[in-house]
Amino acid sequence: MAFLHRHRWLTPYLLLTPGLAWLAIFFAIPLGFLAYQSLQEGTFEFGYSFAWAWGNYWEAIDRYHEQLVRSFLYAGLATVIALVVSYPLVYWIAFRGGRWKNLFLLAIIAPFFVTYLIRTLAWQTILADNGFVLDTMRTLGLVGDDFRFLATSTAVVAGITYNFLPFMALPLYVSLEQIDHRLIEAAQDLYASRLQAFLRVTLPLSLPGIFAGTLLTFIPAAGDFINAQLLGSPREKMIGNVIQSKFLQLIDYPAAAALSFVLMAAILVAVAVYARALGTEKLTG
Amino acid sequence: MTDTFTRRELIERAALGGVVLSLPGVLAACGGDSGSSGGGEQKLADTLDFSNWQLYIDYDQKTKKRPSLEEFRQKTGVKVNYYEDITDNAILFGKVQRPLAQGQSVGRDIIVMTDNTRFPGLMISKGWVEKLDKDAIPNIKNLQDALAHPSFDKNRDYSLPWQSYMTGIATNTKLTGGKPVTSIEALLEDPKYKGKVTLLTEMADTMSLVMLANGDDPTKVDDASFDKAIKRIQKAVDSGQIRDFTGNEYTGPLAKGDLACCFSWSGDVLQLVSSNENLVWNLPESGGDIATDNMLIPKGGDVFTASTFMNYVYDPKIAAQISVGCSYISPVKGVREEARKIDPKALENPLIFPDEEMLSNVVIFDAEAARNQDYIEKWQALLGT
Amino acid sequence: MSVAVETVGRGRPGALARAFRFARHHVLTLYALLAFSYLLVPIAIVVLFSFNNPKGRFNYIWEGFTLDNWRHWNAYPGLTDAMKVSLEVAAISSVVATALGTLIALALVRYGFRGRGATNLFIFLPMSTPEIVLGASLLALFLNLHYATGFVTIVIAHIMFNVSYVVVTVKARLVGFDRHLEEAAMDLGANEWATFRKVTLPLIAPGILAAALLAFALSVDDFVITYFNSGATTTFPLFVWATATRGVPPQVNVMGTVIFVVALSLMAGNILLQRRREGRAP
Question: Least CB-CB distance to C149: which of B4, B91, B255?
Answer without folding.
Answer: B4
